[in-house]
């Protein structure tokens, strides 16, 4: 029988990493959207991803900057709006950042974005989609 994973709160270094990633995400959003007023709203994250994916410049923000930056902004939006909290999931092969809901839902924001980058998805829409699914289920 598989064992349920354990969780722990982020330590100070991990909290700083998330904060730094959020700042990088805000910079990427501002670079592509030209404003900072609504950052981390799912539609802005989708618009940023779309612009980044379509950007032909060689010196555009690196994959890992986009992955961690937009992932951190998504995770924080779930924390702020839907009652998730940042934590580390303790797995057999190591620890992984996640946001966890009291209903035991888990989202891995960095992996969520990394998968889209790895698969070279040309368009966003996935930030709004996951947010709406979770928001609807949160009401029930």
Write up what this structure looks like.
This protein has 140 residues and is α+β, with helices and mostly antiparallel strands. The chain has one domain: Four Helix Bundle (Hemerythrin (Met), subunit A) (Up-down Bundle). It is built from 5 helices and 4 strands. A 4-stranded antiparallel β-sheet has the order 1-2-3-4. Strand 2 and strand 3 (94-100) form a beta hairpin. Helix 2 (42-54) packs antiparallel against helix 3 and helix 2 (42-54) packs antiparallel against helix 5 (126-139). It is globular. The two termini are 30 Å apart.
The arrangement of helices and strands along the chain is EHHHEEEHH
Rg, nearest Å: 15 Å
Looking at the structure, the CATH topology is: Four Helix Bundle (Hemerythrin (Met), subunit A)
Shape: globular
Low-confidence blocks of residues? none
Q: Please give the largest β-sheet.
A: 4 strands, antiparallel
**Total strands:** 4
Strand content: 5-15%
Calculate the terminal CA-CA distance, rounded to whole Å: 30 Å
The largest sheet has its strands arranged as 1-2-3-4
CATH architecture classification: Up-down Bundle
Helix content: 55-70%
Protein structure class: alpha+beta
Q: Would you tell me the overall average pLDDT? A: 90
CATH class: Mainly Alpha
Question: What's the helix count?
Answer: 5
User: How many domains?
Assistant: 1
